[in-house]
DNA mismatch repair protein MutT
Amino acid sequence: MIRAAGAVVIRDGHVLVVHRPRYDDWSMPKGKVERNEVTPVTAQREVLEETAVAARLDWPLRTTRHRVGDRKKQVWWWRASVRAEAEIRPPDSEVDKVEWWPIDRASKQLSYPDEQELLGRALAAPTDGGLVLVLRHAKAVKRSVWEDAEPERPLNKQGEREAGDRRDLMAAYGIDQIWTSPWRRCWQTVAPYAVTTGLPVRSVPGLSEDHVGDVAGIEKIMAEAMALARGGARVVVCGHRPLLDDMLRAIGAVPRPLRPGESVAVHVAGANHYQQHDLS
């Protein structure tokens, strides 16, 4: 299975399209998932590489599936908006033209019917939504070899690399609020993004392992995060494995096992729009 991701980037009644000389087609920016990369990061990276547009992922769309030779290919898509745009993207053998097409033109002249249909879905998607990103802290030093206080147990080398990867994930979503357990390994997981953006980090004692089983307390924390998201905020909430199921249930998400550094994104808009997207 070939895994790929892309984005329907919309601005002022226009959609971002690229021409690929190898195929002589007009399509929306997309590309293959790289090793250890999650699909939202792929989508943002491919938009930037192919168009010089820095995009923010706003709402998940459906996946598309087709065959490439004898292999299956699956592409994850998002509606996206523009954060920044370079003046020129030099043409190369992969993409030789980057254009903003009016919606009416794109809906008829994109080379692939499934992308024409995706454009329609993107136009119907909420434009004022927010999200809550529930994140398990990255890989930590084993309890069995840590001799100091449990709240001070840090990330190991693998976890430090994972924290850097999660910085890219938070950037793809345009996270604007950072909440975390006060324990060291959670702080270290969100620190790279906080340093890059200059955003403050909110320490939430109720997210630490001292509060395992405090369902009411967790529900209160997550209800506040969801209320902010329904108003358009993008909140990451970093916690520990024993609390994750309660954190997810509190925002209406279906719990699933999360390995260190994995997350679940819950997209919301107003009172009626809700979508869960699991990230491995």
